[in-house]
Amino acid sequence: MDSFVANSKEDKHSSASERMNAPWVEKYRPRNVDEVVYHSEIVLVLKKVLDGADLPNILLYGPPGTGKTSAVMAFCRELFPVHKVFCDRILELNASDERGIQVVRTRVCCLSLNIFLSFPTIWSFVVFQIKEFAHRAVPKGRIPFKIVILDEVDAMTGAAQAALRRIIEKYSKTTRFFLICNYVSRIIDPLTSRCAKFRFKPLPLECQKDRLLYICKNEGIDISDDTLSMLITFCEGDLRRSINYLQSLSFRQNITSDFIFSTTGQVPEKDIHEVILACHSSDATRLLGAVDYLHRCGYSARLVIDRLFDHLLDDDALADIDKSAIFDKMAVCPPLFELFGAELIKFIVTFVCVKRSFLK
Fold this sequence. Notes:
Layout: H1 2-5, H2 16-21, H3 24-27, H4 40-50, E1 58-61, H5 68-79, H6 83-89, E2 90-93, H7 101-110, H8 119-135, E3 146-150, H9 158-170, E4 175-181, H10 189-192, E5 196-199, H11 205-219, H12 225-235, H13 239-249, H14 257-264, H15 269-280, H16 284-296, H17 301-313, H18 320-330, H19 333-337, H20 343-359
Parallel strand pairs: 1-4, 1-5, 2-3, 3-4
């Protein structure tokens, strides 16, 4: 028992030197459940499990970068602090290392399985891995189960999800499942009904700001509150993206708003303002020139629409009835983007719709 719960220095999951050289997303990833912020419901459940309560199968869903995988990994590290036990008891499957064609090809050859490498077959192989892991006997100890962490479950086919449901039922005595996805609507009902569901909301500005200020203090980064708030706003509740952008900006001596725009790929306010003035103008050449400039700068049409929407929404000079008319026209644009491959055509479609609303 003592060896099971021991937390020796040589059995740490990552040494201090490794964390120093790791990307900041990994370096500042929560190491225990107490470090997980904002998501109080799931934190409370995980703490009760650590105190001895039963662990249900859990489905975590929500936007990217909100801490779903980090919360699960922090819990598993705390539950199985010894590295060898952690490796024996945890099976983690994710898109980066378990679902690629090359990985499946390699592992299938090793297992001497003759299968056709289509996407349904990939998922069949993933289900096969889960079944093989769940079938293993659980070593005697304080914790009588193994854990499967399956990320991006919403990318699984319906048949693979149905097979996973049967595995969850069959091995319920020895295995618990953490299913992680972005879109819970893509998970079949028989699977969701067998799990306790927890929604991870986008992290609010203040929550992200506290974490980023902590990182800035540790890394010696000098950045103003307004500039940091701008960075967080552009990331739309995605803390992972915020940390990655902050690391990219850390090489700058003086981090300004211009660097924020260039690093995040956001459209500067002056360019949005110029294209809105062109929409107000009756000169079609001016609008085409402004649109061509945005296109040559490499901005995506969807990103421009988002910035345009925010700008018009905050424009007090526009009446609400005018805003609604413009947004009604803009709402038609994203579905049309699927029909057009060229970004320039997407820009023209968007701003012609806006221009018509202004000139009415």
